[in-house]
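Weekly sync notes, structure subgroup
Attendees: PM, AL, DS (notes)

Item 1: joint prediction request from the bench team. They want all two components modeled as one assembly rather than separately. Inputs as received:
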Amino acid sequence: MNQQTSLESAVFSMSLPLFMSLSLNGLSLAMLYFLIAAGFSLIFGLMSVLNLAHASFFLWGAYSGLAIFTTTGNFTLAVIGATIVGVIMGLLVEYLTLRPLYGNHLFQILMTLGLLLVFEELVKLIWGTTILGFPRPEILTGSLVILGRYFPVYRLFIIIAGIVVFIAVYLILNRTKIGITVRAGVEDEGMVQALGIDIRKVFSGVFGLGAGLAALGGVIGAPFLGVYPELGFEMLVPALIVVIIGGLGSFHGSFVGAVIIGLSQSFGGYFIPEFALAINVALLAIVLLIKPTGLFGIEGGH
Amino acid sequence: MAMNQVNLEEKMTGIPAALWRYKYGLILLVLFLIYPLVTPSIYHLSLLIEVFIFTVFAISYNLMLGYTGIISLGHALFFGMGGYVGGLLMVEADYPFLLIIPIIVLIAIALSVIIGFLTLRVRAIFFAMVTMAIATFFWIVAQRWTDMTGGDDGMGGIIPPDLLLPRENYYYFTLIFMVLAYLFFIRFVNSPTGRILEAIRENEERTRHLGYNVLNFKIIVIVIAGIMATLSGFFYTLSMRFLHPSYLDVDTTLDALLMTVIGGMGTITGPFIGAVVVKPLEHVMSTYTEHWLLIFGIIYVLIVLFLPKGLVPSLKDQADRLRLLGRKLLSKN
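Output from the run, pasted for the record:
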């Protein structure tokens, strides 16, 4: 009872700067969720693969980015290198392990779950199990003062990077021929093939792109989250919630879902730290009850 | 044809057909019954207790994945719930053992029905995703709610009732638990309901059009699987006399999945073979290398890719093929 009233007074007495600070915090988290959820959702929408190994691309993005950064000291190089590592991993996973199983959804899920485990254990084998720090690059250290509260520049960088990626991929999907093919593939795979387009190449491309986005999320999230083997799995669960809320297969849905989950994580984490995830699970239940296809989901489906 | 052969065997051996069919199982059961009289090793008894309990856990997973085609990525939820709710009621509230069992069974039913209705009516895939999210949620609660659960340090002092206190007694108790679960499992998959489940696995759309309410059948399965997993978790906790958040984590779900895949999905013998292979291997390998999970993961990936019927059934196929080849060669000579 006492706790209840103190919580209420805390909510009502929340100042504008605190509100701003929590919002920006939540948004930076949201962009990381978005980067991992976007590919996850697109891959599911296009090829009906629930790719649990997607979280591994995020994890490996963080570790390979750290490895490149510590050897070269160049953050831009680390970001580019980690993204490339992600793309290559994605292409290999798609070609070697998923392609033989197309049409068999059950075994694909079993496969990606196994890969999630293998990639995490490989990280432990190579880099050990301790939490590694990822130093922030010089330019992005320090804080800005926003409405009298300090706000780390790095988090602003994450937010801007996330928005830039969102706009870029959104334009690719909606303004280019490749994008139209991908969206058509989500709608009706058979029709796209009938038009003489090799859908397998589109699959590989989207898989590589999605994996690259997740790895990008991993490397830019690393200085903010730290680098440790469970990072992938810890990002997977919010990503699952994001794609269900946003609607499986919807790109802008994953963006909106990520913003919702990021903000609820940030505000929930401030006021009731133990149960921040409980709010997200509750949101998930509400969406499943009221609009089971998610906010921007496609009706019917698989 | 098959029926005639069974009758023939019955006439020849004088053993009822039903018993003859499970002759290997019965021999194994007799061996397990006399085993504690032969060996005094507490370690081996404990390992077998673990195998018995995980066999039931694997049966529950096999019912969903192997017989109905439902994937749960958070089956540890039930295993851990049975452990935590049962263990805490025992330690904190002093509830008697026999009262705890119906309580955790009721919670398991409620939980499965809620998750089932929320997810399965939409898309089968949601069940996989949501079970993973909810299991992770409870895993985090078990870690963070340190006052109650002891957090990552775990919680000890969960002592079985006096009757089950000696290791041998607990051994026989879990053996009976496994045998009862197996009897139920065999009857259930051979019942008309079991056949409909297989029909759902093979072609859900067609089963629906034949007029069966697929959702109801799926919910029946996840309720049964939930109850079995919950009881396994509780009995496992009593055997360990210890609670730990790892009972709720994804590795526990992977254990059940690994056993089901290695033993053979949708087979009667699968869960037991899976548990017998996986549990002792885990114990042996973890003493040699801390990267044993990596080895397991790679084996698992290779099985899914190349031996989708499961490791043991595939080996059996190979043996059959060799035997057939041998017979052909012999008859030629």
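Discussion: Residues 243 and 254 of chain A are 5 Å apart (CA to CA).
Action: AL to compare against the crosslinking data before next sync.
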